[in-house]
Amino acid sequence: MTDQEAAALGAEALAEVKAGHVVGLGTGQAATAFIHALGKAVKAGLAVTGVPTSEASASLARTLGIPLVTEPLALDVAVDGADEVDPRLDLIKGYGGALVREKVVAAAARRFIVLVGGEKLVPALGTRGRLPVEVVPFALPFCHRRLGELGYPAAVRAKGSVPFVTDNGNLILDCAVGSISDPASLDATLRAIPGVVGTGLFVGMAHAVLVWDGGRARTLTRD
């Protein structure tokens, strides 16, 4: 998805936002485009409050004049991107490294709206072969071994020559996966490993997915 297409989707998502709303602000290309669109609306007089899912999104929102709160409780709507979307609107997220805060914000929102290009639609989660798992640093060796034993060999995500560190101070293990037949069961299995903070599996959370496909936006809704 190009930046121009992401901007078009971000503008479409503004229809979900009303005056007085508390809005979850995602992380990544599509979410950044939405934050820019929301910033323009705020500058034009729309009164909202944002809840950022990352320090990067918080910094951008402040630059654009969007008032923020940093402790999510109850949100009207959250808007974010995704790395994979299956036909049930279940998701894999976390390629950008903000999966845990993104999941908290999505869970706190009355409506969770996902913005993607058509290339992110997959027949089954795991199609792209990668599932992020956030772990506390102390547990890294143990989690790495346990994931491998379960059949999900993992690599520590790096940023340059050093491990990537999340905004929560944790590390990410990128697990090699194939087609995931039961995402909810796998999510529960992985989260049961001591030291795992969260996974990139977002099951049953998205209320609608806005897809840029064939030069236009279309909306997919959960059955």
SSE blueprint:
Layout: H1 3-13, E1 22-25, H2 29-43, E2 49-52, H3 55-63, E3 75-80, E4 84-85, E5 91-92, H4 99-108, E6 109-117, E7 130-135, H5 140-149, E8 154-156, E9 158-159, E10 162-163, E11 171-176, H6 183-191, E12 196-199, E13 201-202, E14 208-213, E15 216-221
Parallel strand pairs: 1-2, 1-3, 3-6, 6-14
Antiparallel strand pairs: 4-5, 5-13, 7-11, 7-12, 8-11, 9-10, 14-15
Unreliable stretches (pLDDT < 50, length at least 5) are none
Quaternary status = single chain
User: For the report, how would you describe the main beta sheet?
Assistant: 6 strands, mixed
Q: What is the CATH architecture descriptor of the largest domain?
A: 3-Layer(aba) Sandwich
Q: Which class best fits the helix and strand makeup?
A: alpha/beta
Can you describe this structure?
With 223 residues, this protein is an alpha/beta fold. It folds into two domains: 3-122 and 203-221, Rossmann fold, CATH 3.40.50.1360; 130-197, Alpha-Beta Plaits (2-Layer Sandwich), CATH 3.30.70.260. It has helices at 3-13, 29-43, 55-63, 99-108, 140-149, 183-191; strands at 22-25, 49-52, 75-80, 84-85, 91-92, 109-117, 130-135, 154-156, 158-159, 162-163, 171-176, 196-199, 201-202, 208-213, 216-221. The strands form four sheets. The chain has a six-stranded mixed β-sheet, sandwiched between helices. A hairpin with a 2-residue loop joins β14 and β15 (216-221). It is globular. The mean pLDDT is 96.
